[in-house]
Amino acid sequence: MARNTRIIQLIIILILITFFFSGCWNYRELDDLAIVTGVAFDQAENPDKILMTTQVVVPKNLGSEGGNGPTFINVKSTGFTVMEAVRNYNAKLDRRPFFPFTEIVVFSKEIAREGIAPYLDFFIRDPEPRSQAWIIISDSDAQDLLEEFANIEGIPTRALRQMIERQQGAMSNIASSDVVEFAQAFHSKSRQPVASIIEIKGEGKEKEVLLKETAIFNEDKLIGTLDRSEGRGYLWIINKVESGIIVVEEPGLSNDKISLELLLSQSKMIPRITGDKLEIKIEVSMESQIAEQMGDLDLSKHDVLQSLERRQAAVIHNEIMAAVKKAQDLRTDIFGFGQAFTRKYPKEMRSLEAKWDEHFPLIEVSTEIKSSIRRTAVQTRPLT
Amino acid sequence: MKLEGGKIPANQLVFLIIGFIYGTVVIINPGRAAGNDAWLAFIVSMLVGLCFAAIYVILAQRFQTKNLLEINDLVFGPYLGKLISLVYLWYFFHLGAIVLRNFGDFLAGIIFPETPISVFLITMVLICASAVRNGIEVIGRTSIILTIITTIILVLTSLLSIPLMDFNNLLPILQTTKLKEFLTTVLISATFPFGETVVFLMIFSTVNNPKKLKLTTLIAFLFGGGLLLIQAIRNIAVLGTLMDIYTYPSYTAVRAVNIFEVITRIEILVVINFLTMGFIKVTVLYYAVSLGTAQLLKLKSYLPVVLPIGILMICLSLLQFESSFENSYFTYTIYPFYALPFQIFLPLLTLLVAIIRGKKGVPG
Amino acid sequence: MFNYLAKKFNLVRLLRKQSTQNANGKKQSGLKISPHLKQNLETLKKTFKESNDFVIREFSFGSKEEPINVALVYIEGLVAKTSINDDIMKPLMYDSSFAGFINTYQPNDIIAFIDERLLSMADSIKVSNLEEVVEGCLDGHTILLVEGETQALSISNQGWERRSISEPQGEVVVRGPREGFTETLRINTSLLRRKIHNPDLVLEMLKVGQKTRTNVCIAYIAGIADDGVVQEVKNRIEDIKTDAILESGYIEQFIEDAPFSPFATIGNSEKPDVVAAKLLEGRVAILVDGSPVVLTVPFLFIEGFQSAEDYYSRPYYSSLVRILRYMGFLFSLYGPGFFVAVVAFHQELIPDALIITISSAMEGTPFPVALEAIGMGIVFEILREAGVRLPKAVGQSVSIVGALVLGDAVVSAGFVSSTMVIVVAFTAIASFVVTSHSDAESIIRFVMTLLGSALGLFGITIGTIGILIHLSALRSFGSPYLSPLAPISWLDLKDTFLRFPLWAMITRPKTIGWNNYQRESLDLIPKPPQKKKDK
Fold first, then answer.
1. Beta strand pairing status for C152-156 and C214-221?
2. Using CB atoms within 10 A of its CB, is residue B271 exposed (0-12), middle (13-18) or buried (19+)?
3. Same structural domain for residues C205 and C143?
4. Spatial separation of the C-alpha atoms in residues B297 and B3, rounded to whole Å
């Protein structure tokens, strides 16, 4: 029994100790924190400094019985390093900025051209920020993206994040990566990162924000872009196409268009080394359905369907080849061809890896596309 | 004279060993030098560890109800035996302090950056002390529940991170790492955690069915090692090339989990795992040191030495490293060579001398 | 301060001395019944301090020449008056003389004669000691003393007002028997007998309480219950040297294994079917006169999660409900503590979808969240206590005022965040799921809240480990409290997290009734009847 008393004493002492002596170290109330939903980096006036803009939500005006004030505020701060800029917020903001809910990180194009790795270190090293934030390259100043624009969410950063995620699921023609994916690619010798570019159009009330294209990087430096069809080509290669519309022309004389909605797609890259030649074959197998027909051809015929399938394959082939050409011109292996070779030919790659940017443009890329059209939605014949 | 009257059934020993093997490996990754071959290195080191364990079990079964210190006395005679026992006790004590420090470093470094490290050490030692005072039976029972919880969490976090996994990251096998790095990793993981089970020589004698020891240890090693293997594979598959830049890969790997925007940031589960398993590891070491000290000093009960040893352990773990960098340098470079004599040379020597001198434990 | 302690210490020492003296000097006075009736009656009167419910009825019967003087003594209110009139006095005074019985037989041993020939009572015993007479009276017996005899008849015709058998309020079931134990020991034992028609059901009677002399009955099934446990229960109950046993709770507190633990190590139930089931698993029941609550030992942690209805309804839903009970238990332990830890230390754990909601609710509340949680916890306990103690009608309105009006007002006034009210309210509901451990739950909930607000999840994990250590160190009458979880016993897990079908529960719980473990035959799974072959 005496043993039990001792335990109880121990527990009581423990509680007292913990409660009275440690009650304030890491204790921070939720209403002492400014929840950061997005961060933007620009070049400050002083060229050595960083201009950091953070978007912070104002919970008072959100929620079920929210007030009428603004739902978010943007706060600017400068510093020689990211951490210094973060600390400088304490002189500007009435609450401590809190990063785990950061959804996007925006960089201006100038910064992206000089390299964004120095900024990303903060997001990977510090335990607080979330490493699943999307990386966005802004066409104009990064801070402008955080300003109010027409959206349903009410908070620009949230809207941007939703846009990126919707885009991936419904269109799949602009590639995007989050901090970890970017860092993984950056860290790897045989793969280069990509990110999405967002553009601002219009002014004031007509201001519009749209996902424009895919940025491609060499190491951490922005060196070029992929337009939407090249972007999808890129996604075909890395097996990230989830959905989308493939527009083909009707077989026959009329130039009427047919929209094919992508249902399923799988792709693989198969590297091969023969002698000195590096080859890679992209195997895509995909399935789509006819979602829309502008002309009046009877699509229920077998040969028509077959020819549609061939046209579909051609579209995909062109997209892939366009993306490859762009990347090879820029000598940046965004596809991870190098990784594919490393996995299959580790010994050969040991010598090739060092000068991969010279070998990459020489890779011969071929495609093999299994294109099929399964259903014709609810119609089998055109309206007319 | 028996200081510990308690007996634990063999199935509790399984959980205790599993918990001990999990220990700090739940969060600290001994295999990071081997990059994406870490999981292979892990399998090899598990086999090496099993060889270590075989020596311990043979030793324990030869001397039935005797624990490590009594074996030493029997084999090396009272004076040399005492000296060797003292050396062992130092190792257990030091290991306990290191584990405690790993604890503190992680908690104070990542989870509670503004809280002084001593708070965690003191709290932890207090709770371990209460377990140690309750004896081996209670430690055994507590370990069952904690180990089961940890296993569930480990499997759960691994399942939840399946969407993040890219098994291509495991390829190519055995090509990118150099042999030297691979062997170093094997050595590190064999000594930490598997070789550390040498401390169970203090506990094997309390198992009520010594005949089952072999099977028990084998099951525990395979199960515990298997789960750690799952963890290693998960970490490589999720983190890919970033594996070697993170200090705590398991922690970082599950950070990315996001299921329906609701189950997010479950890394705290990994922290809970770390806490509970670290508790088991510290408790086992702490118990061994307390029991051994009492045995050396010929006390009637080990209870009076529990708290003083705990205080000393806190002091040592606070003083031994200046910073967490020093700690991880020690863990990855010095520790394996420091631990090898205790984990393999001394037990092997004991066994050989015992065979040569024909010493055996009297059953019962 | 020291003075006070010294005094205390002296008092304890004094009491020690006294009790040893008592033990030495204590001998049964053992006053024999004297042949003089008057003298006996005087002694009895003195013993009862002339209380006016102590009744002496003197009369005589037999022949006029040699009348037999007798006296009936009893305590008004404890005996059935009609039975005294019809079954004791009438045979003696009327039937005997009418038949000229006494004259014919001229008995030598009048007591035996009365007992064997005259009284039409089922239960009577001979006593020869005044102690026993007094005890008999107090138990509600009627005592017949006869002039010139050194023995007396103690006739059992108790008949006091008793509550009829009704459904226990604390353990309501939808399916299953409705009857519950009452305050009368005999009725309670009869309820058990009616469940278990087996001579192996042993009921042993003990008297406990130096002043109250309460009847305590130990029930067990010979051959299933462990003899060691039965003996241990008996020893512990016999060792109770106290004034009064007013309720089985007194017994519980004197014999429990872990008096310093918040967890109960002795189970209780008001339902005969529950107690019968526990007896059949090899447990020992302790029935106390005057209390409808029957104790069962050994009591394991998991018993708190089992309910009688689990076994009456089919296994699938029972298993689901049982898992829900564990979840409710965990939630009620950790709810507020975890919430405080997350909101004050680990905000990054809040799901994205909730962060805005929670933080806008927290906005502008004046108190730290830890204080809110503890304060609301206290308010809840007060409300609960008020609701329980008040009469039913008032109690309900208290809970409505408390829950709805107060909760709403507190939130709209901005004192407490609405999320906190939700957490506390749900915790409150969850805590009613497992009633056996509810007192431990409340205490641990507060401890967890404190730990959570001091050290976040680290504190909570440490607290949990501490509780686990404590629980694994507990034993209840030799059985480890946490079994079958720790030490693990695979066979017994059939009735722990899931409730296996009855036909699959082949063995009795290992830790309790292992000396006779098979409880049913192996092949009980229902099967469709074998089809007869068509000719």
1. unpaired
2. buried
3. no
4. 12
Chain B contacts in chain A segment 306-345 (CB below 8 A)? 339, 342-344
Distance CA A335, CA A341 (A): 12
Residue C473's closest chain B neighbor by CA? B138
C390 and C249 in a single domain? The answer is: no
* pLDDT tops 70 at residue C367: yes
For residue B51, pLDDT over 80 is answered with yes
Q: Do C396 and C271 fall within a single domain?
A: no
Instruction: Give the mean pLDDT of A67-71.
Output: 76
- Model pLDDT, residue C26: 45
A 10 A CB-CB count for C256 gives: 20
Residue of A nearest to C447 (CA): A15
Rounded Cα distance, B7 and B15, in Å: 15
Tell me the CATH number of domain A232-384, given options 3.90.226.10, 3.30.300.210, 3.40.50.720, 3.40.50.300: 3.30.300.210
Tell me the sheet residues that pair with A375: A289
In this predicted structure, the answer to whether residue A377 has a pLDDT above a threshold of 60 is: no
* Res C25: pLDDT: 45
Can you give the pLDDT at residue C105? 61
Asked if the C-beta of A378 comes within 8 angstroms of chain C's C-beta atoms, the answer is no
**Whole-angstrom distance, CA of residue A98 vs CA of residue A128:** 8
In the block, tokens 């919707």 appear at A166
Helix intervals (H) in C56-109: 81-83, 96-98, 101-105
CATH topology of domain B10-345: Amino acid/polyamine transporter I (1.20.1740)
Q: Locate tokens 């906005």: which residue?
A: C363
| A38 sits in which H/E element | strand A33-43
Instruction: Tell me if B112 and C458 make a contact (CB, 8 A cut-off).
Output: yes
Is B168 at the interface with chain A, CB within 8 A?
yes
For residue C465, name the pLDDT band (cuts at 50, 70, 90): very high
What rounded mean pLDDT belongs to chain C?
84
Do C257 and C229 fall into the same domain?
yes
- Tell me which chains share at least 3 CB pairs under 8 Å with chain B: A, C
Angle among Cα A75, A101, B257 to the nearest 5 degrees reads 155
Residue B288: pLDDT band by 50, 70, 90 thresholds? very high
Q: Over the Cα atoms of chain A, what is R_g?
A: 26
Q: Locate the domains of chain B by residue range.
A: 10-345
Residues of chain B neighbouring A347 (CB-CB closer than 8 A): 175
Cis peptide leading into C484, omega within 30 of 0?
yes
Cα gap C389→C404, rounded to integer Å: 20
DSSP character string of C481-533: TTTTTTTT-GGGGGGTTS---GGG--B--HHHHGGG-B-S-S--S--PPPPPP
Where do the structural domains in chain A lie, given as residue ranges? 29-226, 232-384
% of chain B exceeding 90 in pLDDT: 13
Interchain contact A188–B (C-beta under 8 A): yes
Show which residues on chain C lie within 8 Å of chain B, measured between beta carbons: 345-346, 348-349, 351-353, 455-459, 461-462, 465-466, 468-469, 472-473, 480, 482, 485-488
**Collapsing DSSP states into helix, strand and coil, what is residue A173?**
coil
Structural domain count of chain C = 3
The ipTM, to two decimals, is 0.90
The token duo for B311 is 């205080």
Top residue of B111, B117, B145, B252 to mutate, by most chain C CBs within 10 Å, is B145
Tell me which chain A residue has its CA closest to the CA of residue C471.
Answer: A4
DSSP assignment of A247-284:
EEEPSSS---EEEEEEEEEEEEEEEEEETTEEEEEEEE
Contact A176, A164 (CB under 8 A): yes
User: Which residue on chain A is closest to B177 by alpha carbon?
Assistant: A346
The amino acid occupying position B311 is: I
**Where in the sequence is the domain holding C43, given as residue range(s)?**
37-156
Q: Is A249 strand, coil or helix?
A: strand
